[in-house]
């Protein structure tokens, strides 16, 4: 009698632990998505600020400099390098975040892949329809 009550309390506690673990996983998934969104927003803000600063610098340098063409080309090259570096940093941050939390967001990744596949199929159908109309 006592052993059966012990086993039922053990199974109920394990189901409680399982439910608690699933809720922790859901909370972690939400936190990870929020962190990714915040990081992307911060990176976009940084890119916008960098572009504005570079544009202002280009205008100031073009007005002040004697060799306008050389300085403008150098500033444009610097701007391109800055944008490339920011894009690389964004990609690296996203890859690192995805790799680190891959175990937690496997379901989310599967959903994203399915959504992307559906969007690609819709785009393919639209392209086929447009090509058929214009032939």
From TrEMBL:
Entry's transmembrane regions? 30-58, 70-103, 109-134
Q: Keywords for this entry?
A: Membrane, Transmembrane, Transmembrane helix
* Protein name, entry field: ABC transmembrane type-1 domain-containing protein
Give the organism the record lists. Answer: Elysia marginata
């Amino acid at each position: 009698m006592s052993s059966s009550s012990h086993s039922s309390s053990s199974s109920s506690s394990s189901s409680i632990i399982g439910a608690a673990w699933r809720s922790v996983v859901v909370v972690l998934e939400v936190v990870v998505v929020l962190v990714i969104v915040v990081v992307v927003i911060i990176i976009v803000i940084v890119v916008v600020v960098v572009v504005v600063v570079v544009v202002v610098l280009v205008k100031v340098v073009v007005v002040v400099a004697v060799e306008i063409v050389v300085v403008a080309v150098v500033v444009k090259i610097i701007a391109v390098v800055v944008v490339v570096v920011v894009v690389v940093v964004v990609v690296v941050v996203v890859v690192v975040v995805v790799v680190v939390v891959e175990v937690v967001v496997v379901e989310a990744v599967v959903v994203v892949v399915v959504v992307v596949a559906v969007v690609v199929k819709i785009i393919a159908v639209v392209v086929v329809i447009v090509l058929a109309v214009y032939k």
